[in-house]
Amino acid sequence: MATQAAVAPGRRRWSPQERREALWAYAFLGPAFFFLFVLILFPILFAFWISLHDWSLIPRDFPLIGLKNYVEALKDPLTLKSLRNTLVYTVGAVPVSMTLSLILALIMNQDKLPFRTGFRTAYFIPVITSWVAVSFVWVWMFEPRYGLVNAFLALFGITGIKWLASPVWALPAIMIVSIWKGLGYNMVIFLAGLQGVPRELHEAAKIDGANRWQSFWHITFPLLNPTIVFITITAVIGSLQVFTPAVIMTTVQGEAGGPINSTRVMVYHIYSTAFRYNQLGYGAALAFLLFALILVITLVQLRLTQRDVDYS
Amino acid sequence: MNKPNVRNLSRRELLKLAGASAAVTMMAACTPAPTAPGAAPAAKEIKLTHWQHHSVSRAQTVEHFKARFEDENKGVTIDFQSIPWADYWGKLASGIAAGKGSAPDVFQIPMGLVEEYVAGGNLVPVSNLVVAAKEIGDSYLPWTIQRGKKGNDYYGLPLDVQTLLVYRNDKLFKEAGLDPKAPFKDLNDLYEQSVKLTKKKGSQTDQVGFDTGYYSAWLTTLFQQFLQREKNGTAWVDAGTKKLVWPKHPEILDLFKWFCKLSAETDDSAFMTGQSRFALGKAAMTLGHPVTRGSLKTQAPDLAYTIVPFAPRQAGQPLYTAGSHWMWVVGKWVSDVQSAWKWVYYCTNKPAQIVWSDLGGDLPSFKELVDDPRFRKDENAKVVMDSLKYATPWEWVGWAEWVKELGDGRDRVVIGNEAPDKSFNTMVDNLNKVIETHTPKS
What we know:
The complex is a heterodimer of chains A (312) and B (442). Chain A has 312 residues and is mostly helical. Chain A is built from 14 helices and no strands.
């Protein structure tokens, strides 16, 4: 103690033992830092560098053009249409998916429900099924003339929906598939949240005369807040990055996003610009715009939804 | 028993030991392989990397050539990679960006991108020591090498040569009282046949007269046919302005309107979406490449069909089709230019093209082979081989954007009910931007 106090005004010298320990710590952290820099940080910085150039996938001289790619992207009708489609998809798919999965989780949380484990497994199967396989099957189901969906709707007198061939219905068709596929995942997260709600609170409320709705609204729902925040944020980020179903379900002659760009989502727009149209610089700028959008939306969500939860 | 003489290894000693063993391993790895006493010095080893996008039959064909080439050229090995389509462009771009050691020595690109690759200084021309430029010009069909030529040099040799032809379902034609073998008189004849072959039950389509889904090929063929046959082969991009000449010719807008009408009345994009309607007997006609014969053989082996040339715009005009192909090229970073071009020529010369046809179902690009009886075994094959004689190459500057813009042009009219003139103008504006992006700056 006396030694430490003596050197306190300046920087304390490390003992050889401390130095050795620090060295070992860095040695163990080294590989992780190396991969972090090489595989994550460097590509991000390099992508930003590319976005400032007229950079083509076909090598040539790439002149520095500053923020021109960003300015053009914000004026480009196809980019704005892709952004709009992505936001519509997110706003349409996330709330419906969350509501349905919460209802499902509440049902699956009932102790007296017969075959509860079987149901939980059944609802989770779409989650572990390949997006590509699922998308192909749904393309057949949405086929307007012979598809199962229209055959089912015809039972209720609803006919003539052209689904993936219609600029009005194509995006909702993709949302339906995404909601169906994501239901099981959100349900499991909600179930975990529900099982963290102390049983005594419900018992006390019951003694105080609260009905099932009051018990849900005043106890379960507030205590699910951390779960809701987690699902909302991850689901919104996932929806803003939607790619596979939108591409598999709408590709005609190698080009996806139709008809008339009605299902062109931002990640496909980035992919096709960079890797199909060879405009890597412009594609990189689009990627950073999407990143900025996701960042802003996530921060707003955190601000609006995060609050302390007291289980006591 | 005596206690063994054991002591703990300190960290410092452990590090020294690890460092020493790593150094020994590295030295061992860097040491040249021992040569047997009295053995002759090894010949210069040349390793060529060759990338192409994957197709089972094409990969098998390249493997066939690789085995023979390596056998005939001791010291040369071909590192062949058949890359899935979805990964091909990303991998090619990153490989080329990383340069020598990562970039493929030999790779394939569509003919519409060769000019950009050459302008970027990425390719080396065909080595005269392997095949002289004059010999290339004399032996290949001109339209199959035209887009690989810059100055007096050729920068690629063609493969995957395709034209566009009309496939007709014999059964559906006969049911409608039409002769599937009779060629079209003109575009009006094509339209009338399509109408006659379209079947609807109430408001629902039951059979399409013409599967017009290959929109980009349709419009390319129609527009190029007009310029080639009626405007003395005028190029569709003006050499001075670098813009499309289409707006100067009202006939081209008329052709666009005609196509939208045909597609709206005799096709239905909501009918069996994404399925091969011709193979399933639900489309009486389709526009396809000769390679479609291979997929029909697999998908619908019992389907009887006839291939006929595309309809002339006006009766009596010479036949026309738009031709496309890929090119095998050699990167500037290659260590041995001559060996690389020797390999490419080995896979694209006259004997190789017979193998490509047998194993991969490809069309030849050698002039001498067009009339070779081996390629003309039936009536459909004769129509296909004859089409090689009157084709000219697609004039796309760039590539994938054309698929989108030409398809969107049709969709806006047929699905979105936009006025054809407006959609046409949007299409032209967007394509002019594409041309500007892909035209090398001089």
